[in-house]
């Protein structure tokens, strides 16, 4: 089910009959993170309806360890921004992002969240990547539930393969600083 490489190794002399696991801590933590993500849905329009069908029994996002939605930013790992984001709503989205603990990932769902969609007006934010960093984009107007699941699986791959130390790297800190996040 997972690509993590966990090997049972023969025990040293004197400890016969007791195998032990030999793997890197990064792959073990990555596997645990990838299979226990708690999404926070931030849905403002029609993409939220498609997300509801993703949660239903036919598509069942619970198969991926995400059946527990978190409506508290402090308990969520994945911010799923779905739908049109007005410029007045942008500070709220950023505050929700900042309240999430590290590691955190962002999934931008639908044309409106990705690029403003058909609403090229003064009041609509032309993509949430202008205020917070986005990890995965799911295009479509509205995207099908299969596309949302595919985007979520890409987030799982990021979580599984990310080094524990990545969030402390100068490149990551520079990215956050470019968004005005410390």
UniProtKB/TrEMBL annotation:
Cofactor: [4Fe-4S] cluster
Cited SUPFAM superfamilies: HydA/Nqo6-like (SSF56770)
Pfam families: Oxidored_q6 (PF01058)
GO-annotated biological processes: aerobic respiration; electron transport coupled proton transport
Ligand binding ([4Fe-4S] cluster): 46-47, 112, 141
Subcellular locations according to the entry: Cell membrane
Cofactor descriptive note: Binds 1 [4Fe-4S] cluster.
PROSITE patterns: COMPLEX1_20K
Keywords on record: 4Fe-4S, Cell membrane, Iron, Iron-sulfur, Membrane, Metal-binding, NAD, Quinone, Translocase, Transport, Ubiquinone
MF annotations from Gene Ontology: 4 iron, 4 sulfur cluster binding; iron ion binding; NADH dehydrogenase (quinone) (non-electrogenic) activity; NADH dehydrogenase (ubiquinone) activity; quinone binding
EC number assigned by the record: 7.1.1.-
Predominant location category: membrane
Membrane topology, record value: Peripheral membrane protein
Catalytic activity: a quinone + NADH + 5 H(+)(in) = a quinol + NAD(+) + 4 H(+)(out)
One Gene Ontology CC term in the entry: respiratory chain complex I
Taxonomy, superkingdom: Bacteria
Family annotation (InterPro entries): NADH_UbQ_OxRdtase-like_20kDa, NADH_UQ_OxRdtase_20Kd_su
Oligomer and partners: NDH-1 is composed of 14 different subunits. Subunits NuoB, C, D, E, F, and G constitute the peripheral sector of the complex.
Role noted for this protein: NDH-1 shuttles electrons from NADH, via FMN and iron-sulfur (Fe-S) centers, to quinones in the respiratory chain. The immediate electron acceptor for the enzyme in this species is believed to be a menaquinone. Couples the redox reaction to proton translocation (for every two electrons transferred, four hydrogen ions are translocated across the cytoplasmic membrane), and thus conserves the redox energy in a proton gradient.
Protein name: NADH-quinone oxidoreductase subunit B
């Amino acid at each position: 089910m997972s690509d993590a490489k966990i090997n049972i190794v023969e025990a040293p002399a004197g400890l016969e009959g007791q195998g032990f696991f030999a793997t890197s801590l990064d792959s073990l933590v990555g596997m645990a993170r990838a299979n226990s993500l708690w999404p926070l849905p931030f849905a403002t329009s029609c993409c939220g309806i498609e997300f509801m069908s993703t949660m239903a029994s036919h598509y069942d996002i619970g198969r991926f360890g995400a059946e527990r939605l978190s409506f508290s930013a402090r308990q969520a790992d994945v911010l799923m921004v779905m739908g049109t984001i007005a410029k007045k709503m942008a500070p709220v989205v950023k505050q929700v992002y900042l309240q999430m603990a590290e590691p955190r990932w962002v999934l931008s769902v639908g044309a409106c969240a990705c690029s403003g969609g058909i609403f090229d007006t003064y009041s609509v934010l032309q993509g949430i990547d202008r205020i917070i960093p986005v990890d995965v984009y799911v295009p479509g107007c509205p995207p099908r539930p299969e596309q949302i699941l595919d985007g979520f699986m890409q987030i799982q791959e990021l979580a599984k393969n990310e080094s524990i130390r990545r969030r402390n790297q100068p490149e990551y800190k520079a990215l956050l600083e470019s968004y005005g996040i410390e």
